[in-house]
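I am still learning, so would you mind making up any protein sequence you like and the C-alpha coordinates describing how it folds?
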Amino acid sequence: MPELPIDSPMRRRLPPLLRHAWYGLNQAFRRRIAPLGITPDQFTILRVLLEARSEGVTQRELAQRMGSDPNTISALVQRMETAELLERLPHENDRRAHRLRLTESGRKTYKKARPIALDLQAEILAGLKPEELESFLTALQTISKACQDAADRSPSETRVGIRRPPAENE
Protein backbone atom coordinates (compact mmCIF):
# COMPACT_ATOMS: atom_id res chain seq x y z
CA MET A 1 0.00 0.00 0.00
CA PRO A 2 1.50 3.36 -1.01
CA GLU A 3 2.31 5.89 1.71
CA LEU A 4 -0.21 8.70 2.05
CA PRO A 5 0.87 12.27 1.25
CA ILE A 6 1.95 14.29 4.29
CA ASP A 7 -1.15 16.52 4.00
CA SER A 8 -3.64 13.67 3.60
CA PRO A 9 -6.69 13.92 5.88
CA MET A 10 -6.07 10.26 6.68
CA ARG A 11 -2.79 11.17 8.46
CA ARG A 12 -1.96 13.05 11.62
CA ARG A 13 -0.76 16.46 10.47
CA LEU A 14 1.75 18.65 12.27
CA PRO A 15 0.07 22.10 12.01
CA PRO A 16 -3.31 21.07 13.47
CA LEU A 17 -1.65 18.95 16.16
CA LEU A 18 0.54 21.85 17.26
CA ARG A 19 -2.33 24.34 17.05
CA HIS A 20 -4.69 22.16 19.11
CA ALA A 21 -2.02 21.35 21.69
CA TRP A 22 -1.10 25.02 22.10
CA TYR A 23 -4.71 26.18 22.22
CA GLY A 24 -5.72 23.59 24.81
CA LEU A 25 -2.69 24.28 27.00
CA ASN A 26 -3.13 28.04 26.73
CA GLN A 27 -6.86 27.91 27.55
CA ALA A 28 -6.38 25.57 30.52
CA PHE A 29 -3.64 27.79 31.95
CA ARG A 30 -5.57 31.01 31.22
CA ARG A 31 -8.58 29.70 33.16
CA ARG A 32 -6.51 28.48 36.09
CA ILE A 33 -4.54 31.71 36.59
CA ALA A 34 -7.43 34.10 35.84
CA PRO A 35 -8.10 34.61 39.58
CA LEU A 36 -4.56 36.05 39.86
CA GLY A 37 -5.37 38.71 37.26
CA ILE A 38 -2.72 37.66 34.75
CA THR A 39 -2.63 35.91 31.38
CA PRO A 40 -0.33 33.08 30.23
CA ASP A 41 1.82 35.60 28.31
CA GLN A 42 2.10 37.78 31.39
CA PHE A 43 3.13 34.75 33.44
CA THR A 44 5.85 34.06 30.88
CA ILE A 45 7.09 37.64 31.15
CA LEU A 46 7.19 37.35 34.94
CA ARG A 47 9.20 34.12 34.63
CA VAL A 48 11.64 35.58 32.09
CA LEU A 49 12.21 38.65 34.26
CA LEU A 50 12.64 36.54 37.40
CA GLU A 51 15.24 34.40 35.64
CA ALA A 52 17.02 37.43 34.12
CA ARG A 53 20.05 39.12 35.52
CA SER A 54 19.45 41.68 38.24
CA GLU A 55 19.67 44.69 35.91
CA GLY A 56 16.68 43.37 33.93
CA VAL A 57 16.16 42.89 30.20
CA THR A 58 15.15 45.18 27.36
CA GLN A 59 11.84 44.76 25.56
CA ARG A 60 13.75 43.52 22.51
CA GLU A 61 15.50 40.84 24.60
CA LEU A 62 12.16 39.90 26.15
CA ALA A 63 10.54 39.51 22.71
CA GLN A 64 13.42 37.29 21.57
CA ARG A 65 13.28 35.10 24.69
CA MET A 66 9.52 34.68 24.34
CA GLY A 67 9.54 34.11 20.58
CA SER A 68 7.09 36.98 20.17
CA ASP A 69 6.90 40.17 18.18
CA PRO A 70 7.90 43.53 19.72
CA ASN A 71 4.42 45.08 19.29
CA THR A 72 2.76 42.33 21.31
CA ILE A 73 5.41 42.63 24.01
CA SER A 74 5.03 46.41 24.13
CA ALA A 75 1.29 46.19 24.82
CA LEU A 76 1.79 43.48 27.46
CA VAL A 77 4.54 45.46 29.18
CA GLN A 78 2.35 48.57 29.29
CA ARG A 79 -0.48 46.67 30.96
CA MET A 80 1.90 45.00 33.40
CA GLU A 81 3.54 48.29 34.29
CA THR A 82 0.10 49.80 34.96
CA ALA A 83 -0.68 46.80 37.18
CA GLU A 84 2.67 47.39 38.96
CA LEU A 85 3.95 43.90 38.13
CA LEU A 86 7.09 45.28 36.49
CA GLU A 87 8.95 48.53 36.16
CA ARG A 88 10.71 50.19 33.26
CA LEU A 89 14.05 51.75 34.06
CA PRO A 90 16.24 53.86 31.78
CA HIS A 91 18.83 51.83 29.89
CA GLU A 92 22.35 52.75 30.92
CA ASN A 93 23.72 53.01 27.35
CA ASP A 94 20.72 53.52 25.05
CA ARG A 95 18.37 56.45 25.64
CA ARG A 96 15.67 54.82 23.49
CA ALA A 97 15.65 51.54 25.42
CA HIS A 98 14.44 50.61 28.88
CA ARG A 99 15.34 47.81 31.23
CA LEU A 100 12.41 45.81 32.57
CA ARG A 101 12.48 44.44 36.10
CA LEU A 102 9.99 42.71 38.35
CA THR A 103 8.41 44.64 41.17
CA GLU A 104 7.74 43.00 44.53
CA SER A 105 4.11 42.61 43.44
CA GLY A 106 5.30 40.86 40.26
CA ARG A 107 7.43 38.46 42.31
CA LYS A 108 4.50 37.64 44.59
CA THR A 109 2.18 37.07 41.64
CA TYR A 110 4.73 34.77 40.00
CA LYS A 111 5.16 32.85 43.25
CA LYS A 112 1.38 32.22 43.35
CA ALA A 113 1.13 31.30 39.65
CA ARG A 114 4.15 28.99 39.43
CA PRO A 115 2.58 26.01 41.27
CA ILE A 116 -0.46 26.30 39.00
CA ALA A 117 1.84 26.15 35.95
CA LEU A 118 3.80 23.20 37.33
CA ASP A 119 0.63 21.26 38.21
CA LEU A 120 -0.79 21.81 34.73
CA GLN A 121 2.47 20.75 33.09
CA ALA A 122 2.56 17.59 35.21
CA GLU A 123 -1.07 16.88 34.34
CA ILE A 124 -0.41 17.28 30.60
CA LEU A 125 2.78 15.21 30.60
CA ALA A 126 1.29 12.46 32.79
CA GLY A 127 0.13 10.72 29.61
CA LEU A 128 3.75 9.93 28.76
CA LYS A 129 5.80 7.19 30.34
CA PRO A 130 8.87 8.53 32.19
CA GLU A 131 11.18 7.01 29.56
CA GLU A 132 9.19 8.77 26.78
CA LEU A 133 9.26 12.22 28.35
CA GLU A 134 12.82 13.27 27.53
CA SER A 135 12.55 11.93 23.96
CA PHE A 136 9.29 13.82 23.47
CA LEU A 137 10.73 17.10 24.77
CA THR A 138 13.87 16.68 22.64
CA ALA A 139 11.76 16.03 19.53
CA LEU A 140 9.53 19.01 20.34
CA GLN A 141 12.61 21.22 20.76
CA THR A 142 13.89 20.04 17.37
CA ILE A 143 10.53 20.85 15.76
CA SER A 144 10.43 24.24 17.49
CA LYS A 145 13.87 25.13 16.15
CA ALA A 146 12.98 23.92 12.65
CA CYS A 147 9.84 26.09 12.70
CA GLN A 148 11.85 29.15 13.78
CA ASP A 149 14.52 28.45 11.15
CA ALA A 150 11.80 28.19 8.48
CA ALA A 151 10.34 31.51 9.64
CA ASP A 152 13.79 33.12 9.50
CA ARG A 153 14.28 31.90 5.92
CA SER A 154 10.83 33.06 4.79
CA PRO A 155 10.17 36.45 3.18
CA SER A 156 8.98 39.12 5.56
CA GLU A 157 5.49 40.56 5.27
CA THR A 158 4.27 44.12 5.40
CA ARG A 159 0.72 43.01 6.33
CA VAL A 160 -0.69 39.64 7.24
CA GLY A 161 -1.05 37.59 4.09
CA ILE A 162 0.72 40.09 1.85
CA ARG A 163 4.36 39.50 1.11
CA ARG A 164 6.76 42.38 0.94
CA PRO A 165 8.07 42.79 -2.60
CA PRO A 166 11.81 42.21 -2.85
CA ALA A 167 13.99 45.31 -2.84
CA GLU A 168 15.72 46.06 -6.12
CA ASN A 169 19.07 44.96 -4.71
CA GLU A 170 17.74 41.59 -3.40
